[in-house]
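Journal club prep — side note

Before the paper discussion, L.F. wants everyone to see what a predicted structure for a comparable chain looks like in token form. Sequence:
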Amino acid sequence: MTSTSRGIDVSAYQASQDWTALKSGGLTFAFAKASEGQTSRDGRFATHIKGIKAAGLVPGAYHFAWPNQDASREAANYIAAVKAYAGPGFLHWLDLEAYSDGRNYRGRTAAQIKAYASAWIAAVQKAFPGQRVGIYTSASDIAAGHVPSGVPLWYPAYPGSRVDTFAEAEAVSKPAPSGRAVTIWQFTSTPAKGPRVDSNLAYLAPAALRAWAKGEDTDPGSDYTPPAFPSGLAPGKSKPSAVTLQRALKKGKYMAASVAESPHYGPKTEAAVAAFHNAHPQYRAKGTTHDVAIGPKGWAALFRLAYGK
């Protein structure tokens, strides 16, 4: 079985699609633009998302961000646009990119843009518990520090004619902008052949993508980097296993004992790490409002609280 899945994304710029035929042709997922800013909605969102869901594709929606507006109002606009269609297996994305003239970023610092993204994600996660929320963003936004840690990344980068088809995208190395892990790569927006739609490659096999979209801890699905400690329990210099972290979270009562252990860091582990940070905010990464990635200082504190050492 292939280790990738194929998908496209659409907006009001694209006409209605034959989603059943696209699925038969090898598509696994499709995303549609739902909203933009504080009040704007995409005029073809309902048509697109109904077709995507009816065809049995992994569905998702995205919101085009205006970080120089109010994050809570923008999240409310998106939530209202998608609430009739969102459910288990539905993916949510914040499209964090500047207009060519910078008008949606104007007057905001990198820290403010990051805080906006964190607030939008937190609001959407609260509205749709257990559903995945990620960020679509560029290499320049990542390098500028606009992107919170611990979120799935949908990454646009266009190599040109040498990578113009799904087969060509599957044959090249997975991108890693600024060392961040990429869940989905948008590799072209103007393919030489076929319809003029954005083509995307997810780095999960179709069955794994469906499980991941439903919130199962089947794959990291984010740029989370585990803290440094050895194969034992005490912090040290070698990388940990996710299971060791999960056992410490359970021991510290931040994760339910009934949660199945997994070799991957997924939403259940993220929720437990967030619970630890909420209980002990001094170990939360500076400037974040919902930190789901644990660093060496936080891990050392968790180890002491869980095992008394």
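L.F.'s comment for the group: The radius of gyration is 19 Å. Keep this in mind when we get to the figures.
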